[in-house]
Specification:
The chain is 48% helix and 19% strand. The chain is α/β, with parallel strands linked by helices and 123 residues long. Helix 3 links the parallel strand 3 and strand 4. Helix 2 runs parallel beside helix 3. The protein is globular and about 35 Å long. This is Response regulatory domain-containing protein. Keywords: Phosphoprotein. InterPro entries: CheY-like_superfamily, Sig_transdc_resp-reg_receiver.
Length: 123
């Protein structure tokens, strides 16, 4: 069984959708609400993958990614999603080093097919 994934978001309803899809695929994902919680969970058990909402309040994405690399070896794949109307925020997430960045609508469309990849189960 692969390591559990982590999802940084503050939307419990959306997380339920993602965790249900993960569960149906035989995977586990844990919700964290802050970057500090994400790092604490990653220290406790290196995640198979990380999914994050780039609009999480107070998120300093470059610092989070650097810290995540410092506490996990190897660093997990990071999939980020956000509003399609804020292209500059999505571009900044790519530049910060996220492995995959997409609008939330694309994330939802690809959820069933890609959840294993995003949570590190498929390589």
């Amino acid at each position: 069984m692969s390591a559990p994934g982590l999802m940084l978001c503050d939307d419990l309803i959306f997380f339920s959708r993602v965790s249900g899809t993960a569960r149906a695929a035989g995977l586990t994902v844990r919700m964290v609400r802050t970057a500090a919680d994400l790092l604490a969970a990653a220290r406790a058990a290196a995640p198979g993958g990380v999914i994050l909402d780039v609009h999480n309040p107070g998120l300093d994405l470059p610092a989070l990614l650097a810290d995540l690399k410092a506490v996990c070896d190897p660093a997990p794949r990071v999939t980020a999603y956000g509003s399609h109307v804020e292209a500059d925020v999505l571009r900044a997430a790519r530049q910060a080093g996220c492995d995959r960045v997409m609008p939330r609508s694309q994330f939802v469309t690809e959820l069933d097919a890609k959840i294993g990849e995003w949570l590190g189960a498929n390589g």
